[in-house]
């Protein structure tokens, strides 16, 4: 089935890919430990393979795919800005220096109000909501994004998404 239907989880649920136009689904470039890279509209099999896996004769899959994934992302960008919302495991499959040398890149960092790396459902939900916002509104409108206490600011060429301080004690 198409990747946009195959993938699931908190980020995908909050991205709401079923309501996107096919043109926007094609803009989703997803590093895959099995395929290298797929677009949101590509047909993919059901699989559970991690970039952290090591395969005999290939080694670590993130390292194995790094060069072809980086080149594929740069080609897919066609000179547009790449918005990097990847979690660490997927980010390991990209040579960020080479990608930035090829195309403009905006990396997105999610932080808790205290500056720590947030974890859990809330951060993943915010990532999905922001991804959808950027598809709908464009990168120029990034700082207008606000959802459930999360707000965006520019930090050089990159975005920082910060959660509001928790009122829970």
SSE map:
Layout: H1 3-6, H2 10-15, H3 22-26, E1 29-32, E2 36-39, E3 54-55, E4 59-60, H4 61-77, E5 82-84, H5 88-91, H6 96-102, E6 105-111, H7 121-137, E7 146-147, E8 150-155, E9 158-162
Tell me about this structure.
The protein is an alpha/beta fold. It has one domain. The protein is built from 7 helices and 9 strands; from the N terminus they run αααββββαβααβαβββ. The chain has helices at 3-6, 10-15, 22-26, 61-77, 88-91, 96-102, 121-137; strands spanning 29-32, 36-39, 54-55, 59-60, 82-84, 105-111, 146-147, 150-155, 158-162. The strands form 3 sheets. Strands 5-6-9-8-7 form a 5-stranded mixed β-sheet. It has a two-stranded antiparallel sheet with strand order 1-2. It has a two-stranded antiparallel ribbon with strand order 3-4. Strand 3 (54-55) and strand 4 (59-60) form a beta hairpin. The longest helix has 17 residues, at 61-77. The radius of gyration is 16 Å and the shape is globular. The termini are far apart.
Distance between the termini: 45 Å
Reading the helices and strands in chain order gives HHHEEEEHEHHEHEEE
State Rg.
16 Å
The overall average pLDDT, rounded, is: 93
Give the helix tally.
7
Count of individual beta strands: 9
Derived from helix and strand composition plus strand pairing, the structural class reads alpha/beta
Tell me, what's the shape?
globular
Q: Report on the biggest sheet.
A: 5 strands, mixed
Q: Spans with pLDDT under 50 lasting ≥5 residues? A: none
| Widest sheet: strand ordering | 5-6-9-8-7
Strand content: 15-25%
The domain tally reads 1
Helical fraction equals: 25-40%
